[in-house]
Amino acid sequence: MIDILEHINAVQREVSRTGETVTVLMRRSYQAEPAEVWDALTDPDRMRRWFMPVTGDLKVGGSFQLEGNAGGDILECDPPKSFKVTFGGPNSLLELRLLPGAGASTELELEHSMGEAPAPGGAGALWVGPGWDGGLLGLALYVSGELPADADPVQMADSPEVIDYNEQSVRAWIEAIRASGTTTEEDLLSAAKISLSQYAPDAEL
């Protein structure tokens, strides 16, 4: 069983806006060395275990494609510290940074900036934040050894347990956007309804 609230509360979420660019910033600690977390994030054979299959020329100047999802270009890579890619388009930039934590832990920072946000102001965070929450959850279960060897991340994503997690994630992002003051309450609630319909279809505001 997934401790939903433990995993929701393990993530720090921030939303900011500069002009038309909206940025989500997430932080989470993992009980594994940075080299181990880096390998889980970048080895295609391991990524398919907790995230989704990836193909492409996985080096700076190359490109990648996530199966059934976004692709992009690899702009920067500094193993085992950070990488930066476009994600779904040239105005959508994703950067992951790994910092050594206490003991044998790793502090992960995920920053996703959207130059053309899909909703007014910070409300656009609801299009990407809950999805990245799901990814950080999968990574946590994987590096802690809680994922069965035959686990299928796609099937897990459709499980009632993960859908409950998604609902709590959307609600956490609503509060993060409110705290940021980057959009109106009307636009926030409109985006939240759409986000819930995608990530937790039976939930209501």
Automatic annotation (TrEMBL):
Matching InterPro entries? ASHA1/2-like_C, START-like_dom_sf
Q: Which Pfam families match?
A: AHSA1
Q: Which CDD domains match?
A: SRPBCC_CalC_Aha1-like_6
Q: Where is the Activator of Hsp90 ATPase homologue 1/2-like C-terminal domain?
A: 32-119
Q: Which family does it belong to?
A: Belongs to the AHA1 family.
Name of the protein this chain belongs to: Activator of Hsp90 ATPase-like protein
The top of its lineage is: Bacteria, Bacillati, Actinomycetota, Actinomycetes, Propionibacteriales
